[in-house]
Known about the structure:
- The structure is a single chain.
- The protein is mostly beta strands.
- The chain has one helix spanning about 15-30, and strands at about 35, 40-45, 50-55, 65-70, 75, 85, 95-100, 105-110, 115-120, 125-130, 135-140, 145-150, 150-155, 165-170, 175-180, 185-190, 195-200, 205, 215-220, 225-230, 235-240, 245-250, 255-260, 265-270, 280, 290, 300-305, 310-315, 320-325, 330-335.
- It is about 5% helix and about 45% strand.
- The strands form 8 sheets. It has a 4-stranded antiparallel sheet with strand order 2-29-28-27, with no helix packed on it.
- It holds the Pfam family WD40.
- Keywords: WD repeat.
- This is WD domain G-beta repeat uncharacterized protein.
Amino acid sequence: MFRDEVKTGSSDPVFLCLRFISLALLFLVSGCSVTKSQPPTHLLSGVHPGGAQRIAFSPSGRLLASGGLHGEVIIWSVGSGMEQRRLPAHRSRVQGLAWQDELHLLSVDRTGELRRYHVGTSDVVSRFFPGPVRAMKISTDRRYVLLGQANRVLRVNTGSLGVEAQGEIGGRIISVAVDAGGGQVAVSTADGRVLVGDRDLSHWRELERPSSDANDLHFSADGSRLLAGGWFRLWVWDVTSGVLEPRPTAHLGQVISVDINPDKQTWLTLGRQTDSSLYLIDAQSNRILRRLQAHNLCGWQARFSPDGRYAASAGEEGSIHLYDMKAPYRPVTVWGEESE
Length: 340
């Protein structure tokens, strides 16, 4: 069913024309539109002026780190939604956050300064300057992070911040991913490629190309599938064969962020343009299980906690939405003109 959709992708003129017409109509009626969605358990409103860019749960899931447009890094209690600590700010916007353990947080800004914080003391324990960074993901064992730069990938030890391996990609990197076993990595590039490589970043093979950018790559728990967001769709690859399965979504623009629940049964998808909606999706049927409250402006990132108990999203209006996923699903009516 999904294979036929590849023939008319987001690069097709007719497809684009129809989409833009539908979006224009959407904007005309948005002032009186009605949606039903679940409010967050904790709404951290306007905590990052200019935009909440990145979020990351600690290994225990009790803490959430957030990074903003102006470089600020804040630690939150997931249970209470209360601010716990502010760490020394970066000089530019935060591009990645990752917890080494419950006390040490790694963050990187757009200029390429990678920091290792001691969260208990707020000290910057160590720094590394690899150059401008576009994406960062941490391995499941938290021993290294993968940094995506303009045209290369670095594997950096989380303890020493030393470079263990590097690979040339030959294109501007959008996203990076590491599988659960640490033996496979993946990158997507602005020229439309999606590549899977080995841990040493020395051997790469290209998967079937999607018709739009592949945002926020994630491997499935067994490493057999690769998930990403695209324009109006999700991209799902069989890693072994490289075959792409495009999946339709209810998003009315770019799907900027996705995540896979540790229970392997559900996914999070976050829109960037037009709706900024957050959906909980059944991984097998592609059915929307929960519609979670949209951000007022463009979405940036969505994440599950390590145990799947909580979910969080960050948006360009500077807010963070925290959800207890064990709470009953009780959507409420939201009018198009309402704000947080």
